[in-house]
UniProtKB/TrEMBL annotation:
Protein name: tRNA(Ile)-lysidine synthase
Classification via PANTHER family: TRNA(ILE)-LYSIDINE SYNTHASE-RELATED (PTHR43033)
Role of this protein: Ligates lysine onto the cytidine present at position 34 of the AUA codon-specific tRNA(Ile) that contains the anticodon CAU, in an ATP-dependent manner. Cytidine is converted to lysidine, thus changing the amino acid specificity of the tRNA from methionine to isoleucine.
Residues the entry annotates as binding ATP: S28, G29, G30, L31, D32, S33
GO molecular-function terms, A-Z: ATP binding; tRNA(Ile)-lysidine synthase activity
Membership in a protein family: Belongs to the tRNA(Ile)-lysidine synthase family.
Stored CDD domains: TilS_N
Residues of the Lysidine-tRNA(Ile) synthetase C-terminal domain: 368-437
Keyword Signal: no
Record flagged with keyword Transcription: no
Matches recorded under InterPro entries: Lysidine-tRNA-synth_C, Rossmann-like_a/b/a_fold, TilS/TtcA_N, tRNA_Ile_lys_synt, tRNA_Ile_lys_synt_N, tRNA_Ile_lys_synt_subst-bd
Assigned GO CC terms: cytoplasm
Length: 441
């Protein structure tokens, strides 16, 4: 049987992409990551050309959090591994669970330490894998959920690696005792109100006593589910590309012509492309009935987590809920750039720009400003006869309803000058200045 250090080294050797890849350890200070720090120290001695570091995320949820951080710092100094601490900012009043917030914050902070081809090392082990499979069963997950965690997975431009996934926690604890290692104990790990703690403390010990190989069996089942998921993606790749539009929306009419099983699979693939949690079977049914099959004159909207599924001109779109900024407004200084809220890009009125809509220069005393709220505004596009409510013009210019409060409107005093990148109003066209809107990708 391989030792813990040998298991760690073999996985790292198999996952290294190129000689310049760095190893970044997520170090909580608990037993698992403490053992991995020791393994990383041994590995660095054998591979001194590799750059390594350990990153500890301070969540601030325990009175002992400062102590844990300093312990991690001390252990890294002893191992001669560079140590970095990051501080999470969690909202205890949020509807999202603290556990989920902490996980999201942790990975977001860890990602700041990663470059292309780096390996992010996390210390999940075989017992953690069994917990994940059992939680997936509790939620009624399909093969993708039951695939649980892989030894390696894509993480932005880096790779997330779990070297201990084949090892039981018992093996890690034996190793720690043999090496006389200390580690921290998070008191919240004893709270069985959390599902994982309930499984770890009450369920898995009983299962392991009855079936000692159950962790290995769960790992094997997860790997088989993962392989099936990969096979399905490969088989349906051509069909997925046939329903996906150039702007990453989906052709609703084409989806209607597919079987329910294939349609649901392609919708899940669409969510996965955006890194979103998978919609459940009930939610997939609602997408089909209430969005895809809504009446032609409807403006359907289905909220799923942090996004909404919308339909516009026979296409489905995934829209971030936080993008709208209807009440925001700001003045613009000519030849300077103005950052818009909520990641909507930036705008400017410039005499030097070679992109954007041509507008006349503001006259002396005219207030130049930008707003998003189209309510009550009237505009007269230069190429049209007569003025119309901006709401009607948005429809004519085929701007989806959810983008109408995300489209910057250039104003001189109280008159509409230009709208987004769509049109300039009569009386305001010119040749010396441009109103430009650069959107974030």
């Amino acid at each position: 049987m391989k030792s813990v250090i040998e298991t760690f080294s073999d996985v790292i050797n198999a996952c290294l992409i190129e000689d310049s890849s760095r190893l970044v350890l997520a170090l909580s200070g608990g037993l698992d990551s403490r053992v991995m720090l020791e393994c990383l120290s041994h590995y660095q001695l054998q591979n001194p050309q590799l750059e390594v570091r350990a990153v500890h995320v301070h969540h601030g949820l325990s009175d002992n959090a400062d102590h844990w951080m300093e312990q991690c710092r001390t252990w890294c100094e002893e191992a001669r591994i560079p140590f970095y601490a990051e501080f999470a900012n969690l909202d205890i009043h949020s509807k999202q669970s603290l556990e989920a917030q902490a996980r999201e914050a942790r990975y977001a902070l860890l990602s700041q330490h990663l470059r292309k081809n780096d390996l992010l090392l996390t210390a999940q082990h075989a017992d953690d894998q069994l917990e994940t499979v059992l939680l997936a069963l509790k939620r009624g997950s399909g093969p993708k959920g039951l695939a649980a965690m892989g030894v390696k997975s894509v993480f932005g431009e880096a790779v997330l690696v779990r070297p201990f996934l084949s090892l039981k926690r018992e093996a890690l604890e034996d190793f720690a005792k043999q090496q006389n290692l200390d580690w921290v104990e998070d008191e919240s790990n004893q709270d069985t109100q959390f599902d994982r703690n309930f499984l770890r403390l009450r369920v898995i010990p009983a299962l392991s006593k009855r079936w000692p190989e159950i962790q290995a069996s769960a790992l094997r089942s997860a790997q088989l589910c993962f392989e099936q998921e990969q096979l399905l993606d490969e088989l349906l790749e051509q069909q997925y590309q046939s329903v996906r539009n150039a702007d990453n929306s989906l052709n609703a009419q084409c989806l209607c012509e597919l079987s329910e099983a294939i349609r649901n699979r392609l919708l899940r693939r669409w969510f996965a492309q955006y890194g979103l949690p998978m919609p459940g079977k009930k939610q997939l049914g609602l997408i089909y009935r209430e969005v895809i099959n809504a009446s032609q004159d409807a403006n359907p909207k289905l909220i799923i987590g942090k996004v909404s599924v919308r339909r516009f001109q026979k296409s489905l779109f995934l829209v971030e809920q936080s993008k709208e900024a209807p009440y925001w407004q700001s003045t613009i200084v000519i030849d300077t750039t103005l950052e818009l809220p909520n990641g909507l890009g930036y705008v400017g009125v410039s005499s030097h720009s070679d992109i954007g809509l041509l507008v006349r220069a503001p006259e002396q005393g005219e207030k130049v400003w930008v707003q998003f709220n189209p309510g009550g505004l009237t505009a007269h596009p230069d190429e049209r006869s007569g003025s119309r409510k901006l709401k009607k013009l948005f429809q004519e210019y085929q701007i989806p309803s959810w983008k109408r409060s995300q489209t910057p409107i250039l104003m001189y005093n109280e008159e509409v000058v230009a709208v987004g990148d769509s049109f300039v109003c009569r009386g305001y066209s010119g040749s010396g200045h441009r109103f430009y809107w650069k959107k974030h990708n």
